[in-house]
Amino acid sequence: MKAKVSVTLKRGILDPQGQAVLHALGSLGYSGVQDVRMGKLLELELATSDRAGAEAEVKAMCERLLANTVIEDYRIELVD
Amino acid sequence: MADAPSRIGILVFPGSNCDRDCHHAVEQIMGARAEFIWHKNASLPQLDAVIIPGGFSYGDYLRTGAIARFSPVMAAVTRFAEAGGLVLGICNGFQILLEAGLLPGAMLRNRSLSFICRDVRVRVENTATPFTGRCKPGQVLTLPIAHADGNYYTDQSTLSKLNAQNRIVFRYCTPDGQVTPEANPNGSLDGIAGITNAAGNVLGLMPHPERSAEALLGNEDGRLILFSLLDSIKSGRFAPKPVMAS
Hints:
The structure holds two protein chains of two kinds.
Chain A: E1 2-9, H1 16-27, E2 39-45, H2 51-66, E3 72-79
Chain B: E1 7-12, H1 19-29, E2 33-38, E3 49-52, H2 72-82, E4 86-90, H3 92-99, E5 106-108, E6 116-124, E7 140-147, E8 151-153, H4 156-164, E9 168-173, E10 192-196, E11 202-205, H5 222-235
Parallel strand pairs in B: 1-2, 1-3, 3-4, 4-11
Antiparallel strand pairs in B: 5-8, 6-7, 6-9, 9-10, 10-11
C-alpha cells in the first residue's frame, strides 16, 4: 500500500513561495489565479495492507516528523 | 589554585558548519574549555553549558532542524535543559530547539525567500537572562545573520505569553533602536530575533554572536552574549541539578 502525504502551510500563515508563484503566474497573463499555496508531497511505500492500521501509523508519522503542526497541515491519502 | 575552566559542549550534526567557530570562541575568546559532542552520543559529559551551533544539519531536509532534533544527543540535551542547564542555540541551533519543543514556535522561509547574510541590529529586550547580563536595557547590538528560514512564527496566545513573561530577548531594530517593519530582515513575527524558554535557561537566537566577538573581525558585540553566559556559569546559579539516569 502507498500513502501520499501532502503538507501545506496552515491557512492564515503567509506562504511567501506560494505568493512568488502567484505573482509569476500573473506576469505570464494567468490573471484568474486568486491564490497559490505551495507544499510538499511525500509518497510512502508501506509493507502493510491494513488500511486502518496504516492510517493511524502515518498520522503518527505526520504528527512526529513529517509536518510541523505549529505551521503546517497535512492530508493523508492511502492508495492500494 | 585557579578555578577549573568552565566546560561548554558544542553539538556536531552532519551539516553543522559553525561548530568550529563556536569552539574557537569558547576556547580563545571566553577562555573556557570546549568539547565537541557528536550527535550520536546518547549522553553528555559533565558540562556547564551546551551550544547548538549554526549550519545546515541534515541538509535542512524536510524542515530546518526537523531531523536533527531526533538525534540521540537531543534527548540528552532535553534532560540537561530540564535539569536547569544552560543551552544556547544559534541560527540552525535555534531552529533545532524549536523543532525539539524546547522553545515554542516554528520558522518559516524568509519573507523575501532569499538567504540573507549581513549584519543586522537587534535590541536587547531583557537583560535579566543568563545570556544578557552584560547588556544594558534597550542596548542595540550589531550582529551578523546568515539564514533562509528565520521568519519566526507562533500563534497569538503563545506570543502574548512570550511578551508577558519577558521571553523575547532580542528584536530586530533600526540603528537607533526602533523596532520597525523595515528593520526586520526576514518577516519574523513581532520582530523576534531570539527567545528563551519559561525557565530562562534555554536561549535561541538567529544572529551569530560567535562571529562577532573579535576586534580583528570588526565587531565585538557578540562578546556581551558570550561573556554573559560565562558569568552565569561562574555564578553557579545555573548548574544543572543532578537527575536520575533514565
